[in-house]
Each structure stands twice: as structure tokens, then as C-alpha cells.
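Form P-L/3: holo structure prediction, ligand flavin-adenine dinucleotide.
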Amino acid sequence: MTPPRKILIVGGGTAGWMAALHMQHLWGDRDMEITLIESARIGTVGVGEGTTPLIKEFFDRLGIPESEWMPECAATYKCGIAFPDWSTVEGHETYFHPFFSEQDRAHVSHFWDNCNLRRDGFDIPAHPDDYFVSTAMVRQNRCPIAQTPGVPNAVYGYHFDAALMGQYFRKKAIELGVHHVEDTIERVQLSEDGRIAAVETEQHGALEADFFVDCTGFRGLLIREALGEEMRSMRDYMFNDGAIAIPTPHEEGQALSSETVSKALSHGWCWHIPLVTRMGNGYVFSTDYISHDEAEAEFREYLGARAEGREAHRLYWKPGRLDNHWQKNCLAVGLSQGFLEPLEALMINVIQSTIESFTHCFEQGGFSNQQQETFNQNVNLFIDGIRDYLQLHYKLNTRTDSQYWIDTRENPHMSDHLRTILEAWDSNADFDRVLFDHINQQIYPRTSWYCMLAGMGRFPEASKHAMRVPVRHQQRAAAASQQQAMDFWPHQEYLQQIYAAKA
Ligand SMILES: Cc1cc2nc3c(=O)[nH]c(=O)nc-3n(C[C@H](O)[C@H](O)[C@H](O)COP(=O)(O)OP(=O)(O)OC[C@H]3O[C@@H](n4cnc5c(N)ncnc54)[C@H](O)[C@@H]3O)c2cc1C
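OUTPUT (holo model):
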């Protein structure tokens, strides 16, 4: 297959505009035409406000400074995610999953060592919250930008308003030279060899291209409806398929946090995402156990007066993924390629990785069937790796307050990879060796696995006495991370500076 010259991106949600920006930036000065079509009638999904550190590379590559885009998107910094109430194990009722930073190198091996001693039954402190600078920064309401000269910034992601980000991406992509069409596609035309030839629109007639990027959201207008690619269900692994989003105003006098909170509720979990203008909140659950009406009632009661009069946005999906994200002359990006659930806020990461691997193939001259197959296998490996890590949260929960939590914990469906990891942790196996042996199936690094397993208190009864040295290591790490955190700006103060720079 020859590399495309005319690319039509269908869909103007986060996926479509990210694809447009990335491709235009990379190929805009070549003989290549990139157009994005979106429907004014069919809205975007309107959620997706938490990210991972990968997105920083996206902005950096485009040369867009934080002082430009963050104020336009009500964005805040993100140091990681707190997980309250997933575990009932004493001392482990909450834990923080930090983004791992250079500053953590000095203490992380003590964390691993202490976890392994604790696995072995020693009465050793092995809670992740003591060991990482990001955790300490969140506790001190700081952000990951260093104020002390010579100290590097910590690793971080962002929170942003999805609607404002959509508008910003659109403005930026058009400035860069992406052609923009507002219209609704009625039909997809296939050529004799089964490739997409054109899309028929309501007002602009047939739009032809030699390559199409399907960013039409859950519907998958091109990849699924026209090319017949099927969604592989992940329902056996991931039970959640519904959400209610209710944004609320900030509470008076509350400092702006740099963490996402993912708190367990009766039949799922809820996110709290701090933006400059408001809190983003949403309850994610399984409709097999609770209806949208029941979930909304529970969530409103939990949010209290803040949610009064606030509109709820209902979302539905079927957890799954495609097998072929790139099929013939069409690449699916975003919700059209599948969605598991929002825990750990990974979808924008999947979007970015998919686009970047695709353009990388192109740069390598890789439009052969073999390259396409490898690409699809890699995307699947990536998504399945995410699925395993997400499912582990449910496998480790110790709640007994609803059948939902019992069933997600006792769910016998899990990949061999996840089963191996869990069994290794629970046994006296060399856990690091097992992680290393399965490195290709892992999206998350060693520290993340340790953080979740230790954070949720997945340890045997302590049957052996405490040892002085590991206790001292934990105390030193806790004191050092609290001290190191002071090298970083208070979150609110730093945001005020960059927001003022924009004004
Ligand atoms: C509850 C929930 C919470 C989430 N939270 C996070 C999070 O914290 N972090 C994260 O990374 N991700 C999150 N996600 C995922 C994230 O929202 C999406 O990945 C992201 O918004 C991208 O969506 P999209 O662009 O693929 O689709 P959409 O936003 O649905 O956009 C689809 C586009 O296709 C266009 N379109 C559709 N049909 C036609 C047609 N016939 N003609 C023309 N145009 C058409 C529409 O106009 C629209 O522009 C969450 C998802 C859900 C459901």
C-alpha cells in the first residue's frame, strides 16, 4: 500500500483533533492534505479530563507552552491518583498511585524491599504513601513544578476541561493548516476492493481521500459500520458499562488539589477531578448491578448540596476493543477503537500512542501488510496490558457491602498474565523476576504494580517480628519525601502565575 497523500479525519472529539494536530505538525510541510470533518449535530462524548504524563510529550512536540494552553482549558497539574475505600484492610483504606519521578530513585528500592519482606510475613511498614515525592506534594497542595533552582520538575500529567480542550485543539489545528469541514456523514462509499473510497455528506457531497481516520466515537462509523470490524467484548473482565457525570463548584476555601481521586462507592467508583473553574465528578458502575437512576440518586446524595440543581450527564458503553485498529485504508482512533472504562484515565494515552505508532510506521515507509499486522498486535497488547492493570484494582478490593464488589473480586475471568502476577505476589516467588519475565505484556512499570498490591494491603498476616533497618528506611523515606516536596511550588500559586502570564 502506498503512503497516503490525502487524509480525511472523521470526528472532532479529542481523538480527531489530536490526530489532526499530530499529523499536520508532522506532515504539514509535505505534499499532504489533512482534513477533519465533524458533525455539529452529533456531539462529542464530553468527558475525559484526567491524563497521564505521556500527554506532556504531545504538547512539547507541538511546541505549545503550558502558559498558552492551560489557562484556555481551566487545566491543573496532576501528580497521580488516590484510591480511597477500595480496601478495608486496616491501614490500607486508601493509597496513592504516584507518577514516578527522579526524586524517588533514592527510596524506591526500600519500598520494594519492604514490600517483599512484608510478603514474607515480617511486620514491616510497606505502604506506598510514605515513599514518593508526588504523594507528599499532594499532601502539601503543591504541584510538580520545582521552585528550588537546580531541582528537576517531577513527572506529571494534567487535568483539563474536555469541552474547552476540544475548542483549543480545534483552533490550534486550524491555525496549523488542517482543513475543517462541518457536516454530517450520511453514508460511506466502498470501492470494489472493499476499501473506503469516500464519505457522503449532507451538504458537501462526497469527500474522497486515500486514507481515513475514524474518530467517530463509540459508533465507529467507518471501521465498524462500513468495514465490518467487530468489537471484541471485554465484559467478562471489566463489568463497568455506565457512568453519571455531575460537575460541581469548588467548595469555599478549599485548596486546589493536584490529584485525581478515584473513590469506591457501593457499585463502582467515582472520580473527582479538580479544574480551576470547577470539580469534575463522575460515578462509574455496572448496569448489571445498579441502574442509571439508582446510581444518580446515590451519587447526588453523596455529593450533597454541591450537586443541587446541577445537570447529570449519562454515559453508556460496552467494554471492548477492536482486533484490527488499522484495517485497509482506515485507522480507528479513540472510542471507535474500543473503551474499557475510565479508571486510571488512560484513553487519551491510548489515542496518543495509536496515532504516534501509526505515523511512526509511515515514517519507516511501513505500509506493508506485515507492518499493519504488527501495528494491530502492538495496539492490542497495549490495551490488554491496560485491562490487566485495571482489573487488578477489582481483584484486590476487600469490600463486602454489595454483590458487585464480591463478584468483581471473585471474577474467575482474568488473563494468564494477570493470574501469574497475582499468584506470584501471593506466593514466595521472586516477584520482580515474574514481572520482568512478562515485561512485554505490561504497560505499567514495576513500581505501579507494587503500589497497588501494597497500597490495598494484599499481604499475609504479619507472623514475624519487625526489623529495625527496614523501619528506619521507611521513616527516612517518609521524612525525605516530605522535605523534597517543599522544593515544589504551591499548586494554586504556580497556576496563578501561568494564568496571569496568559492574561
Ligand atoms: C465516563 C467516561 C470518562 C472518561 N474519562 C477519561 C479520562 O479521565 N481520561 C481519558 O484519557 N479518557 C477518558 N475517557 C475517554 C475520553 O472521553 C475519550 O477517549 C475522548 O473524549 C475521545 O473521544 P472520541 O474523540 O473518540 O469520541 P467523541 O468525543 O464521541 O467524538 C466523536 C466525533 O465524531 C463525530 N461524528 C460522529 N458521527 C459522525 C457523522 N456521521 N458525521 C460527522 N461526524 C460524526 C462527532 O461530531 C464528534 O465530533 C472517558 C470516557 C468516558 C465514557
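COMMENT: Residues 369-396 form the longest helix (28 residues).
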